[in-house]
Amino acid sequence: MGFVIYLDQNTLSDLRQRKIDESPNDLFRLLKHALKSEQITVVYSHVTLDEILQIPKAEYRQEHIDILAELDAKYIEPLQHTLSNQEPDNIWYAHLENKKSNADLGITSLMEISQLSSRKISGLPIDESFSEINEKLKVNLGTLIFNCESQLDSIDLEKLNEPLRSYFVNMHSQLDELRTKLSSLQAPNIANEQQLGPQQFREMPSIKALEVKSIEIKDVVNAIEATFKLENNSFDFADYFEDTPQNAVARAYSLMNWAGYHADDFTRTKKGKDRFNASNNDMQHAVSALGVSFLISGDINFVKKAKACFAYVDCSTVVCNPQEFIEKHCNFI
User: Fold this and answer.
1) For residues 287 and 7, what is the distance between their CA atoms, to the nearest angstrom?
2) Is pLDDT of 302 > 80?
3) Distance of alpha carbon 271 from alpha carbon 112, whole angstroms
4) Helical H runs in the chain?
5) pTM for the complete prediction?
6) Does residue 67 belong to any structural domain of this protein?
7) Tell me: the pLDDT tens digits for 214-250?
8) Is 299 in contact with 273 (CB distance < 8 Å)?
9) Are 230 and 266 within one domain?
10) Is the pLDDT of residue 61 over 90?
11) Domain of residue 211, residue span
């Protein structure tokens, strides 16, 4: 396969022909030419598609799909972590169908409510209390279970062969287990909601003493994590997150944001811009790019955090901006 290259959203956007024609220099024209090499496979993820979906103009959305097709880009299947041979147009239409299905089932609503707690913990102004959010979560999860059961009940199991019949029977039992767990969902027990958000964490003497921006990239996450564990010795990440490289990258990215290491401005609210969601997408780009040859981005803060994430999990992925890729790495391709 040669070299596998993941592009962040801004880089992909700058590779559209209209943007290249408007540009005063040849950087992205050269990058586009390099990415068409037979030795390179460009890849993209569900995060790429989600960010394309946020673009207001249908014409511009299609331009992004077109450039993926022009680069013969391969989609990273989110569950299997394998590359799909489907054309970008087909992947895009399937993504839209999946979004509609999620909305109909109630998955989209459930995810939006789940995110309220994360936003509140991050210091964003959320009117509902944690208890109110928890009750909303229970109601929406109950609706989702009901909708899933209705779909399952519409299937005539007698007409199915094994192993499909067993698969759907097992899904029914899983929904029963989920309904049992539903009643035990508890809201976070946080006494002082005024102290939520990263600023309190950054002001802790032990965190301030780290001077995180002066730490070498390869050491920064370990330093923050060690300090976090000293201050929160009863907290164990393993109690909440499966021990996978993907979860480790996500944890590393979040820790750096909270400690103020080239942090995203995710606590700011601005009309028409959801910085919390944008920051989460950046983190997911880093997770999706784990293990590729190159991750290319023009976002300085993202590049620094992605480099630190990959160093933390001992991953050889090279993170660079478009100029660095052209000047330093194209000689090897």
Assistant:
1) 13
2) yes
3) 18
4) 9-14, 17-22, 27-35, 46-53, 58-70, 88-105, 107-121, 130-153, 164-182, 198-202, 205-210, 217-231, 245-259, 275-288, 300-312, 322-324
5) 0.89
6) no
7) 999 999 999 999 998 887 777 776 666 788 999 999 9
8) no
9) yes
10) yes
11) 198-291+301-312
